[in-house]
Amino acid sequence: MTIISDPHVRAVEATLFASDQPMTVEQIRGYVGDDVDIADALAQLEAHYAGRGIELVRRGKSWHFQTAADLAYVLRREREESRKLSRAAVETLAIIAYHEPVSRAEIEAIRGVQISKGTLDVLMEAGWVRPAGRRDVPGRPLIYATTAGFLAHFGLSSRKDLPGIDDLKAAGLLDPIDTAMGDMHFAGEESDSELEIDENNA
């Protein structure tokens, strides 16, 4: 078995292993110092752990260790969900993911119906959606974006990994009502205001 001997790489490894939250490069640098080539260390660690029981993965701008995807069932505990996401919550989450940052009014315009405050509250409580500032227009409405937790939960490295509408149709995940939402630019293109995962949500 290959042993990592580079002290800088080991320092980055130890920092990530000890953290209970994904860490950005800047956060890692705060522990290991400016003289460490963190990008190179992460690349070495990613290769070193590839195919093992735990892997080093990137989610958005953050890195963390996690159980290998094919072994997740070993550690999974059966538990009763207190509640499932409503269709309104699922649609709202999809709209935010594909169009972020978006305001409540923009979400309602796409869905064609009003959404309750509780719908956004559920998504924020789940850690998948966060307030992302205010739109610079009259009234300065609050806008929403997805979080690093959203990427991690759905196994995405970035929003570019979101499936396109053709992929969703092929998988049978769209019914006729959903298909009517095809004008939403569901291709998952990044907006000019690309989501920046702030360190508080990293």
UniProtKB/TrEMBL annotation:
The source's superkingdom equals: Bacteria
Q: Which GO terms describe its biological process?
A: cell division; chromosome separation
Query: Cell division among the record's keywords?
Result: yes
Q: Which UniProt keywords apply?
A: Cell cycle, Cell division, Chromosome partition, Cytoplasm
Report the protein name in the record: Segregation and condensation protein B
State the organism named in the record.
Sphingorhabdus rigui
